[in-house]
Amino acid sequence: MRVTISQIKEMKRKGERIPMLTCYEYTMARIFDGLGVPMLLVGDSLGMVVLGYETTVPVTLDEMLHHTAAVARGAKRALIVGDMPFMTYHTSPADALRNAARMLQEGGAQAVKLEGGIVVAETVRRLTDAGIPVMGHIGLTPQSVNQLGGYRVQGRSVPAARRLIEDARALEQAGVFCMVLETVPAALAKAITGLVHVPTIGIGAGPDCDGQVQVTYDLLGLFDDFVPKHAKRYARLAEEIRTAVSAYVGEVRDGAFPTGEHGFTMDAAALEAALEHVGTQPNGEARETVEAR
Ligand code: KIV
Predict the structure, then answer these.
(1) How far is it, in rounded angstroms, from Cα 55 to Cα 146?
(2) Is the CB of residue 66 less than 8 Å from the CB of residue 238?
């Protein structure tokens, strides 16, 4: 049975912490699902860690749908949240509704995520009224990186902290089932978590949010150019991959791979019969050379 929106909300009421991870493809989705991770976010961060864009701004709805559908094929139990990319929910609530519906119908997600607070509240209301569960996202909103002038901590000043609190309340009133707090001082995130009744999911927002989300590639050490301050590396997969791939390349070069155990046999008489019709190979090799192998 797939995790439901009510179960996620219930986790806050019971004081159960909610672990969430980004996921971009089928194989990892199967692994995370098998481990019982309750919520997977097909984040538009895939634009940076999977597609090689500099920011999340260029990510398209089609790209998101492609990856969300792969995750949905792999994860049968986790609640899947599909990130709505830049400009797919800003132009009008009607456009947002059409695009969010595609995320559920074509992507197989059970919910969508939108960045922004008060400014997207009306859109959130339209989507939830139409039966599309919405996760909010306030604090550092990477799709606005050009407006924000970089990836900076949000809500440190009195007016900025008040704005974030108002954003959180507006999202709750508009009907979000939970909200991401990104790169927000821990004390402010704790206060917001106490003020709203829906779960807060932190990333760089301290230990007192109701749940945490991490970009999987940071956590697994797959993207190892740098470690963001909010991330903890639980594995060093990029190093493991380098070691494994160098070993493979070396063994192919020196002939150590493959050996007989990696190949397939055939009946010697069948091969003999097949070769009877072959005088010279197309590449000019004599038949004896083929037989000698
Ligand atoms: O796209 C993403 O991965 C996100 C998380 C960082 C919350 O939005």
Answers:
(1) 10
(2) no
pTM over 0.90: yes
In the chain, where the domains are located? 5-236, 241-292
Tokens coding 281: 């190979």
In whole angstroms, how far apart are CA 66 and each of 20, 26, 59, 100, 197?
A: 21, 11, 12, 14, 33
Could you say which DSSP state residue 262 is in? Answer: G
Whether 43 lines ligand 1, by a CB cut-off of 6 Å, is: yes
pLDDT digits (tens, 9 = 90+) for 177-230: 999 999 999 999 999 999 999 999 999 999 999 999 999 999 999 988 888 899
**Other C-beta atoms lying within 10 Å of the C-beta of residue 207:** 10
Task: Using most ligand atoms within 8 A of CB, pick from 48, 179, 180 the residue to mutate for ligand 1.
Answer: 180
> At 179, is the secondary structure helix, strand, or coil?
strand
CA-closest candidate to residue 115, choices 78, 157, 144, 94: 144
Of the residues 182, 239, 261, 272, only one is catalytic, namely 182
- 3-state SS of 194-219 is HHCCCCEEEECCCCCCCEEEECHHHH
Q: Which fold has domain 5-236?
A: TIM Barrel (3.20.20)
How far is residue 137's CA from residue 169's CA, in Å, rounded to a whole number?
Answer: 12
DSSP 286: B
